[in-house]
Design brief:
Chain lengths: 279, 159
């Protein structure tokens, strides 16, 4: 048993850094993105790590993992398993067109004081932990609370897979939070060619958004080789792929357009993994 | 408009571009595990436009779970240029993979005169992938090129 204060500090430190803002990167790694034939399956690794795409830290939980069929309706995740370092699952691409697989999470985190004692709102996500109380929610904030500091968080982590000819239905924005609205189809990326992707916040072009693109295979080179790009007034960023391979793309944004009462800040994150092929 | 269109069509039919032939060489590979390559041959108007598949050689007979069509996307350029929206097998276009040797394929009759780009793409299981691109003009196309690893000589002649 550690002293209570130490445990509290540790817990606070963990909670103060939402997964989406920590140095650790969450990612999905599909076995492929372009499929032909009549019985296509994709298998996907899901993990959280620093170096891309090496599973050496934590698995990404499959609880919130969803499949969107080419017509936008929910699809089926199969053979899911979570190991020490990664989760893995399959999707049978049994309809032609572009599929979307991933998570869309949102929550509220922060703190408040009651009678001088600080309490945290929101957890780190994942399944309930046995023996530990469930994290407090906004509804648990009592009327006499003071020093209420709340931040809304939302994050998307998704990949796109195409069986046969590509389609675009799964790109239809929801109009909520930070979203990816590709101009170049994400399953038509070629080394040496420029791809254009639009980002939207609440359905409107996200101008001046910082976008980071990092190639996989970090263990086999010295430099991170990250490309740091910024969207134009139209919310569009242009990426020229230096080589074929898998790339991790991340964009984050912060604003004050909250919908939760007393929340002052909104943090949004978008992650996708893109496959670039040889010409 | 309609009579003019018909007249133009008539003109094309009356003076066909002629039977042109593309000859592709599949080289012998000195390897322990050899599989015949998948090969796609297609034509694109030089100024841009839809690609037209001339020939597609793949494992047409293999069906079921790991059907021959599963690896068509490995002909990556062809797949992107239109293979993915084509229905296979395609009459007069698709056929079985070929053993090393020289093969002739007729280019389509009645091609509109103009500049084209002919591409031959070969992808071999446990082997490599190669593209040979030849610019040519219709009528009377004549072009010559060669691959280095997966393809040998590729020639186009107006016969």
């Amino acid at each position: 048993m550690k002293p209570f204060t130490v445990r509290l500090l540790a817990a606070a430190a963990l909670l103060a850094t939402p997964a989406m803002l920590s140095a650790h990167r969450m990612w999905l790694l599909p076995s492929g993105t372009v499929f032909s034939g009549t019985d296509s399956w994709v298998t996907i690794d899901a993990a959280v790590s620093n170096d891309l795409f090496f599973f050496d830290h934590q698995p990404l939980r499959l609880d919130g993992m969803k499949v969107w069929q080419p017509d936008g309706t929910p699809g089926q995740l199969q053979n899911g398993a979570t190991g020490r370092y990664r989760s893995v699952f399959d999707v049978q691409l049994d309809k032609p067109g572009t599929w979307k697989v991933g998570t869309a999470m949102s929550g509220v985190m922060g703190s408040f004081k009651v009678d001088g004692v600080e309490k945290r709102v929101g957890g780190r996500g994942g399944p309930p932990r046995p023996g530990q109380p469930a994290p407090l929610t906004v509804a648990d904030i009592p009327a006499n609370a003071t020093d209420v500091k709340l931040t809304e968080t939302s994050s998307r982590n998704e990949v796109f897979l195409t069986a046969g000819a590509p389609t675009t239905t799964v790109f239809a924005p929801s109009g909520k939070g930070l979203e990816f609205a590709p101009v170049t189809h994400p399953d038509e990326l070629i080394a040496g060619e420029a791809a254009k992707f639009r980002f939207l916040i609440d359905g409107k072009p996200a101008a001046g958004l910082k976008v980071t693109v990092i190639p996989g295979g970090k263990r086999y080179r010295n430099d991170e080789n990250a490309m740091t790009l910024t969207t134009g007034a139209d919310g569009v960023v242009s990426v020229t792929w230096p080589a074929a391979g898998m790339y991790w793309l991340n964009a984050t944004a912060t604003d004050a357009k909250t919908t939760t009462p007393r929340a002052t800040e909104r943090r949004m994150s978008y992650v996708t993994t893109l496959e670039v092929l040889t010409p | 408009m309609r009579p003019t269109t018909f007249a133009l069509l008539g003109g094309v039919i009356a003076a066909p571009a002629g039977a042109a032939t593309v000859t592709v060489t599949i080289p012998k590979q000195d390897v322990a595990e050899y599989h015949r390559p998948y090969v796609a041959i297609w034509l694109e108007p030089a100024g841009g436009g839809a690609a037209r598949t001339v020939a597609l050689w793949y494992e047409t007979k293999k069906t079921g779970k790991d059907a021959g069509t599963k690896y068509l996307a490995d002909l990556r350029a062809w797949w992107r240029k239109g293979g993915r929206s084509m229905t296979v097998p395609a009459d007069g276009i698709s056929g079985a993979t070929r053993a090393p040797g020289q093969y002739s394929v007729k280019l389509p009759d009645g091609l509109k005169p103009g500049a084209y780009v002919l591409t031959v793409e070969a992808a071999r299981e446990t082997g490599g992938r190669e593209l040979v691109t030849l610019p040519l003009t219709v009528p009377n196309p004549s072009a010559r090129g060669s691959g280095k690893t997966e393809l040998g000589a590729v020639t186009v002649s107006a016969r």
